[in-house]
Amino acid sequence: MTAHAPAAQRDGIDPIRAAEISARIDRLPAVATIWRLVALLSIGGFFELYDLFQTAYISPGLIRDGIFAATGNQGVFGFSDQAAFASATFLGLFLGASLLSPMADRFGRRAIFTFALIWYTVATVLMGVQSSALGIICMRFLVGIGLGIELVTIDAYLSELVPKRMRSSAFAFAFFVQFLSVPAVALMSWWVVPQAPFGVSGWRWVVLASAVFALFIWWLRKRLPESPRWLAQHGRFDEANRILDNIEARCEKDHRQPLDAPEAVAVDVEGKGRFADIWQPPYRRRALMLIVFHIFQAIGFFGFGNWLPALLSGQGVSVTHSLMYAFIITLAYPLGPLLFVKFANRFENKWQIVGLALGAMTFGTLFALQTSAFGLIFCGVMITFCNAWLSFSYHSYQSELFPTNIRARAVGFCYSFSRLSTVFSSLLIGLFLDHFGTPGVLAFIVASMLIVMLTIGYFGPRTRNLALENIAHR
Q1: What is the CATH number of the domain that holds 404?
Q2: Domain count of the chain?
Q3: Most CB contacts within 10 A, which of 66, 156, 244, 331?
Q4: What does the pLDDT look like over 315-333, one tens digit per residue?
Q5: Range of the domain at 234
Q6: How far apart are CA 404 and CA 19, in angstroms?
Q7: In a 3-state reduction of DSSP, which class is residue 462?
Q8: What is residue 197's three-state secondary structure?
């Protein structure tokens, strides 16, 4: 085992005890107790993606109410209000992920998970009562900050709670639950956005439904333990052992036989992480790889997802039909991860990412050539399927590449570039749509996914079935 012993001793951290905690987690069987923890975290992610994907579906209602301008140059900032709305969302996500997500390394996964849930739920409700484009866009910026914190915290939390043999499958299941929110918001929008139930605009019903989520926050919090790995890195071994004793007892009951003996693992205890640690070998190369990856994957993922109704309209589909088609297409979001829960651990995450980027490129090109309803829906479903699978693969992958003491900080910093990218790509997509139509937007997306393939395929390390600590120090 390797450790900086003097620093570890000053921080009250014993590397041998930290290694025992890690080994005990990795020997846990994939039983109902572990899957329940994954499901609880996934419910928090459901709330988050419901808020995030509102961008595409409430814009028609905002335009119809006269809050958003119908043409781009009449928007509140001199360009498309929908583009400004999307950009505000992702600027908030950038700030939340890059500046505030390190709080999860300092204060713990559980506390920040709860804090972020409260933040973006309150901000979303405030957005739902605004009556001006400026008010909605400003509130959306605040929503984005909370979402940015939560996205990173869930990734770190999930990767640390589950054993190495089921990390990718756990992320696949988590994204199945989280992506159920996408057809949910699409269906609700299709149903209520064209109407005004009880005299209240349909888009407000879609947004204010987030208030219901607040009822689940404390229920969720009481059932989620703190990450034992995080506790060990902060020298809180008694708490970590109590949590693991409880989890192991429940797992043994589910498993109906004694648990396997823990395998020895080397843990390099660094104590409190610093931003400078990201730029030490081998993490520097990984950070740069992820930054390039995130800049371009965001264009492919959110360029299609957030602009789907507009892209369908650009192909000659009416607003009502575009929302209906969009709902059908979004069913592929949860379907993709669900189909691969059992198989996700059989393949390297890096090659899953490369293959799915190729799939998104192929079907994105075909989408631009379609004129029939069936062709548009089929290609849209396949793009969405590839994007959903790509999403859970890279979320699992990026959380594996850094040690526990800087996991949230490093992932948050690298991930934030996808948010910054989307701030500007949303504006670019708005311009492309105005000047070159749907084919121009899809060409932009296809080129971005090609860069994704080359970046991960060449620079990405292997991580399959390796302990987090072994991946971190390879």
Answers
A1: 1.20.1250.20
A2: 1
A3: 156
A4: 555 555 666 777 777 788 8
A5: 5-472
A6: 12
A7: coil
A8: helix
